[in-house]
Design brief:
heterodimer, A: alpha+beta, Arc Repressor Mutant, subunit A, Glutaredoxin, 2 domains, about 10% strand, elongated, B: alpha/beta, five-stranded mixed beta sheet, 20 helices, about 45% helix, binds flavin mononucleotide, binds iron/sulfur cluster, binds FE2/S2 (inorganic) cluster
């Protein structure tokens, strides 16, 4: 296994992010750093990746594990190339979220929380994503797909079947270099 | 009539850019505040305006600001709460996406009023595309001299940073948010001390919602008295309402406080009535945490008056017949909606989001979800309905943070107003099958 290390551009960004907090409060950078790590290291946080982030911030690995396990956007296990996060809370449910989930389950032959055998897709139901007025909706990486119909879902799945990169919440251009 | 203050320029092409925002008078409040006002004078105007926190609790903003401790030589912080995770709420997202500079301008003016030289905007991680928009707008504001050292040559310095959350509703609770901003799990702190005394890094801190901060801009520009003249009674100004569910026109609406609920639901200016010509069954008026009300109670108070969109009128009658304005997450349900199933989505949500520190909340939310699931699977008993009632009663008021109450109130109100529906499910489980699949299949295939 290759050495775990951010690329140089990300490392520069990491240093800039750490400067956003007062002297000695570098732990504040933990959440943004975990996001960057997940984006750079295949969409999930392995123990060695978390240890690496701990070393960058000069904190104990346990301080990283306890945070990574608390927040639902961090994946502690590998996920498919395309992570489909479908909102299932009230406003989406009122406009057909259950049917959208069932449609995806049928189409991909997996249940909520599972990954397809080819490692392409993971389905995850999530709680309200602040898109209730354009329900039903799902998120892939940073993108919100709203006012879903079965057709739209089919098109998305088609699209992603051919992609090779991981769905990501952010890249190195998301955060400003201060 | 709709009254646009925050959203006045929302439809102007390019309003998300600094140039167009400036053309429309943007950043005037910063000039006025930094060059002609003292911090205390700004706090006074905000007090006069009657502005109340738009994050859900409705606490008077000017008063909150005046509680901020100011010990010599200790940093103070302003933290904007853009966690926006209350189901049914999407107004902050709309504001940040469409007019990011309105929030940034509000942050500068407000930070100056509070004597903060570093401020943070904590945005829920799911909104990364919004974070990108904000970061760009902040970079432009720095480049134009609205942020950084010696702003407008006045000697005032301000750094503004965006922080990303990572998926946890509880981080909207202000002390959990501060923990999260310090790089920890989002466990709410025991209060006191309040953030105004010991907040971020133990320093005096004000936490305010996105909409609250944005409202400071017109208040500083036009004066507190002007703002207080808008709205009704102690519900001054305008409010952004996120409207969703079975309505013809879901979306974010800026309303003057005091319009009738009926007008809001049925007028073409707002929700445009119930979808597919169906009848109104129930409304959750202020985000998932507030009590659900049946149609007749949301439209009319116990005194038979038309209910208004204001803090006081929505709360009229207490929890027996009233609800709360909350975050303004207005979820509308038509006659075909199963109240029990809707409640199950909320119960699952609160169970998922409980931070687990207090046993009544951690265990109670789990049990409520389980019992509702059991009822929905057709195995419920009448005792289960009573047990649900007992559990919610034991959570309310017995926890560190208000998430416990927020989990209890939807259950209590659903049983209070729709007990018959729970009983029907218990007595006639086959009825459940019929409501499991929805009238919206049609829309999903063709829309
Ligand atoms: C569980 C919970 C979640 C909350 N979520 C939010 C939120 O997403 N956004 C928000 O502004 N306030 C939220 N609040 C309220 C905050 O604790 C706080 O009162 C608010 O940010 C203060 O700002 P305001 O006075 O401008 O409303 C939440 C409170 C609780 C108990
Ligand atoms: S009430 Fe619930 S969310 Fe709030 S501190 Fe207690 S366990 Fe955590
Ligand atoms: S309920 Fe699905 S986005 Fe809010």
């Amino acid at each position: 296994m290759s050495e775990i290390k951010f690329n140089d551009e990300t490392l520069a960004l990491v240093q800039s992010i750490i400067k956003r907090y007062p002297e000695g409060k570098q732990k504040s950078a933990l959440l943004p750093l975990l996001h960057l790590a997940q984006a750079e290291f295949d969409g999930w946080l392995s123990a060695p990746v978390m240890d690496y982030v701990a070393s960058l911030l000069n904190i104990k690995p346990i301080e990283v594990y306890e945070v990574a396990s608390f927040y639902s956007m961090y994946n502690l296990n590998p996920v498919g190339k395309c992570l489909l996060e479908v909102c299932r809370t009230s406003s989406c449910w009122l406009r057909g979220a259950n049917e959208i989930v069932a449609h995806i389950e049928n189409k991909l032959g997996i249940k909520d929380g599972e990954t397809t055998a080819d490692g392409k897709f993971t389905l995850k139901t999530v709680e309200c994503l602040g898109s209730c007025g354009t329900a039903p909706m799902l998120q892939i990486g940073a993108d919100f797909h709203e006012n879903l119909t079965f057709e739209k879902v089919d098109a998305l799945i088609n699209d992603w079947s051919n992609k090779t990169e991981h769905s990501k919440y952010l890249d190195n251009s998301t955060f400003r270099k201060n | 009539m709709s009254k646009k203050i925050l959203l006045e320029h929302i439809d102007v092409p390019g309003i998300e850019t600094l140039a167009v925002y400036r053309e429309k008078g943007g950043y005037a409040s910063v000039e006025k505040a930094l060059k002609t006002m003292t911090p205390d004078a700004i706090v006074e105007e905000v007090k006069k305006s009657g502005l109340r926190g738009r994050g859900g609790a409705g606490f008077p903003t000017g008063m909150k600001w005046s509680f901020l401790a100011k010990p010599e030589g200790v940093a103070r912080y302003l933290v904007c709460n853009a966690d926006e995770s209350e189901p049914g709420t999407f107004k902050d997202r709309y504001l940040m996406e469409k007019i990011p500079h309105a929030l940034i301008e509000g942050m500068i003016t407000s930070s100056f009023a509070l004597g903060a030289n570093t401020s943070y905007i904590y945005v829920r991680g799911e909104y990364f595309y919004i974070i990108k928009i904000l970061e760009k707008a902040i970079a432009d504001a720095y480049a134009a001299g609205w942020l950084g050292k010696n702003i407008l040559g006045t000697g005032y310095d301000l750094d503004l940073y965006v922080q990303a959350g990572a998926g946890a509703y509880i981080c909207g609770e202000e002390t959990a948010l501060l923990e999260s901003l310090e790089g920890k799990r989002g466990n709410p702190r025991i209060k006191p001390p309040f953030p105004a005394i010991a907040g971020l890094y133990g320093c005096p801190t004000v936490v305010n919602n996105v909409e609250t901060i944005a409202a400071v801009v017109p208040i500083v520009n036009n004066g507190g008295d002007w703002y207080a003249g808008i709205g009704i009674g102690r519900s001054t100004g305008t409010k952004l309402i996120s409207a969703s569910g079975h309505i013809n026109k879901p979306g974010v609406y800026e309303i003057e406080m005091g319009i009738t609920v009926e007008d809001f639901i049925y007028s073409d200016e707002y929700c445009g009535g119930i979808k597919n010509g169906k009848k109104l069954k129930a409304v959750v008026a202020g985000g998932s945490s507030v009590p659900i009300l049946p149609a007749e109670m949301i439209l009319t108070t116990a005194n038979g008056e038309k209910r208004l969109m204001s803090y006081e009128s929505l709360a009229d009658g207490g929890f027996a017949t009233g609800t709360m304005l909350g975050s303004g997450g207005f979820i509308v349900m038509d006659e075909t909606t199963s109240i029990v199933q809707n409640l199950h989505t909320f119960a699952r949500f609160y169970h998922h989001e409980s931070c687990g520190q207090c046993s009544p909340c951690r265990e109670g939310t789990g049990w409520m979800e389980k019992i509702l699931h059991k009822i929905l699977e057709g195995h419920g008993t009448l005792e289960d309905v009573d047990l649900l009632w007992e559990i919610q009663r034991k959570i309310e008021g017995n926890t560190i943070c208000p998430l416990g109450d927020a989990a209890a109130w939807p259950v209590a109100s659903a049983i209070r107003h729709f007990r018959h529906e729970f009983e029907e499910y218990v007595k006639n489980p086959s009825a459940i099958k019929d409501v499991k699949h929805y009238h919206n299949m049609h829309n999903l295939v063709t829309a």
